[in-house]
């Protein structure tokens, strides 16, 4: 249940980020996305320890989660750089 909550919160906050009224709000929403992805990673690690899913399936999910964290972090950093140039 917690995995579902944290996983779906990423999509909801990402959507909100792109409807943000300011750059600061956009960056804040992306930060929430990254936090939710980190929580998702935690739950995936617990599932791995409990042997609930195959190692391959969890490896795929973990890899995808890490990729999303990297993408959103890069977007946020680039937006911050753009804000300092203005």
Q: Tell me the overall shape.
A: elongated
Order of helices and strands: HHH
Residues in β-strands, percent: under 5%
**Overall mean pLDDT score?**
93
CATH fold-level topology:
de novo design (two linked rop proteins)
Unreliably modeled segments: none
The tally of structural domains comes to 1
Number of strands: 0
Please give the count of helices.
3
In CATH, the architecture is: Up-down Bundle
The structure class reads mainly alpha
- By CATH reckoning, the class would read Mainly Alpha
Q: Provide the gyration radius in Å.
A: 15 Å
What's the arrangement of secondary structure elements?
Layout (H helix, E strand, L loop, with lengths): L1 H16 L5 H27 L5 H31 L1
Label this structure with key terms.
86 residues, mainly alpha, 0% strand, de novo design (two linked rop proteins), single chain
């Amino acid at each position: 249940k917690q995995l579902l909550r944290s996983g779906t919160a990423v999509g909801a906050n990402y959507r909100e980020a792109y409807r943000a009224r300011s750059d600061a709000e956009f960056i804040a929403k992306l930060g929430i996305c990254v936090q939710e992805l980190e929580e998702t990673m935690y739950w995936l690690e617990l599932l791995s320890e409990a042997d609930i899913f195959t190692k391959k399936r969890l490896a795929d999910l973990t890899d995808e989660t890490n990729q999303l964290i990297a993408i959103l972090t890069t977007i946020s950093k680039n937006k911050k750089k753009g804000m300092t140039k203005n």
